[in-house]
Amino acid sequence: MDWLTANPVIGDIRTLAVPSLFNLYFAFASIPVGFLLAIGFAFGKNSRIAPVRLLSAGYVYAFRGSPLFIQLFMFYTLMLSFNQSLWKPMGIDWLVLHPLFLGPIVLALNTTAYTAEILYGALRTVPRGEVEAARAYGMSRWRQFRSVVWPNMIRIAWPAYTNEIVFLFQATALVYFSLPVIGQQKDLMNKAGELFERDFNVFLHFSVAALYFLAISIVIFFVCSLVYERLMRHTGAASRARFRFTPRFLR
Amino acid sequence: MPDWLNALLGPGFADALAYITNGKHFAWYGAFRFTILAGIFGAALALVFGLMGAAAKNARFWPLRQLGNLYTSIVRGVPDVLFFLFFPLAFEQAVEAFLARSRCTAEAIAANPGVWPPCPDANWILGTWEYLALACVSLGIIYGAFAASVIHGAMRAVPQGQLEAARAFGMSRRQVMWRIHVRQMWIYALPGLSNVWLILVKATSLLSLLQIADIVMWADRLGTPNFLTQVGFLHGDWRWRYYFVLFVFYILVTFASERGFRALTRWAGRGMLSADR
User: Fold this and answer.
1) Helix, strand, coil content of chain B in percent (nearest 5)
2) Which residues contact B64 (CB under 8 A, 6 or more apart)?
3) pTM of the predicted structure, to 2 decimals
4) Would A246 be classed as within a structural domain?
5) Is the ipTM beyond the 0.90 threshold?
């Protein structure tokens, strides 16, 4: 087993295993929150009430139109400026300013906007006839949503949403560039940078970090394609949209 | 400022105006040139890499085709910030390794083992402009991969009939390629390329990671709590206000780009029949 411990690539893969969990944590702590909020914003953007529509559309536009890097800095320093007046007296400054708390919050705000845009696009393409049929059956608004609008929406949106999950996972690499690193709580980029400063071997450490991102992206993609198979199980394989790794409007 | 204007706007306005026009703030405004240059040259290089990548993906020669596919899938599977940092560091080390071959003696290398560069003479010290050039190239490589898949898709979207008609007119392969295929490709590629440009613009905020004193770094410097012994406490932590200005700046750039691309699409599609214009 000597080659296993002596090989620098294997050594790096072992060193970066724990840091990769931080990236996974950031992604999976923000995705559910972002998804739920995005449903609200998607319907808000489609609302008939002008203020709701304008606010939702404005939120989506602002967060899709600016870099995540700036958003992370802005929210961190905003939270920091309330430290003396608000968080310290309330005794929750250790929580609010902690990167493991604030990071997922900013990522969730960001992914909400991107996901809302995807869901809004899907909402607009829900077959009109099906919704009219549901109304003709006398279904309540909630019933219409539950059995007609939502199943259609999620099927249309899923391929694009998969891309969003993958790119959100990759965006987690940015978190620790703007939020403070506490002790040994380092993600893939931090740890790769630390290893690089030790022996200046950029090819080895950054490639192994890239390998982690690539491997996890492929796993996420595979799992999502299984979910898509399940969502589309009532249709023939030929009628399904091609499930591909395509860039969207990303951060 | 004239007195009547001062009276109209109040003393706070004059102070604020003096504050935002002081020397440090002008350094901040000047730092926008790095962001703009990185955006322009990064986009130009991304287009070049995109065309090269698309040509490789379309090649008849199998290894070249696989190379094109490998390029686009690897760069897209890895976070942009990782590649953005990796390329300048790798390039710097490659140059230093090259310099070390001629400049380092065996004794000098033996004198400092385990460090990089192998000897002090081979050290290549990069300034802001060198880093900016490397940043542009790395933006070009990263977003070239995205552009390559957009252009590759657009090449396939050109109607076959157009190409067949050109061939029937007796055009050579090269003429069909450049006069018909590439010309008509743009209208299909523009929506995708506009997305790539919008991503690239947002990636220009990463310049400070390469030691460039760009707008983000200046926003941080200007916003940190400011204390002068003669004057006392100037302001507290104003960083979020400066970041908010950048937040708005990027939204405005996005807005302007969208308008610009809409006009460009209308221009590129002139004379073509399509329902969506």
Assistant:
1) 80, 5, 20
2) B56
3) 0.88
4) no
5) no
